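We store chain and fold; example below:
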Amino acid sequence: MIDIRRFALNRITCPTLSLEEFFRLAADLGLSKVELRDDLPGGRIVDDMEPARAAALAEKHGVKVITINALQKFNLASVKARVSAELEELLDTAAALRCPAVVLCPNNDTNDTRDAATRLSETAAALSAFGPSFVRRGILGYVEPLGFAECSLPSIMAAVTAITRSGQPCYRTVYDTFHHYLGPDAENDIGTSYDVSHTGLIHASGVESPIAKEKYRDEHRVLPGPSDRTSCREQIRRHVRLGYAGDISLEPFAAEVQKLPRAKLADALRASLEYLGA
């Protein structure tokens, strides 16, 4: 069993709910942690309210915002100025929400012509440059490799290499079960080549579609359950067995999940949490 207090809910699960309805849903499920996003309709992390009011609403419902997702293209040097400005805004919002971490997502574009060495070098350079902004506010940066073939950082071990090269103490990785399944790292790398002490957060989702693995995209990501083809539960159990004691956040992107009526969504979430061992 995994203590339910370790589970969190990512807002992508139910993007049509208002912020307070989202907090209430998490609380009704017995969850005390949530992730917010900057890529929902309207582009507002906390809808149209001030961050301080959002923080008060979270406290009212007994939930804590554990991350904001995400700083996009963080490792693409050609857009560094824009990304740096976006980071400052995200960090200011996180500080106002008393949120301890911001997720960083790498460039994920089929038009990215950089070679592997340049991608890794620019990733490390970006982390080095951004580090002081994180440290100054006491906020962590969670680097999230994406397992898609076109991603500039598909490997969690490469992410650790870039973090180490950056020389900054403020970074951890996001271990996403979907992206690990798709990416180049082998399952037995976890605990051997990769130490779970680097993991700041686990993102959990499953895929039930019978399509070929190389065709998996975000829209195929559902709540983890018995028909999952990505071994989400087994991946989480391995991390826990190896000593991971952090949070596990449900992050399904599929419209079939997002469009569920609230009551049915709550039932589906409870079933998934039970399946994962909460």
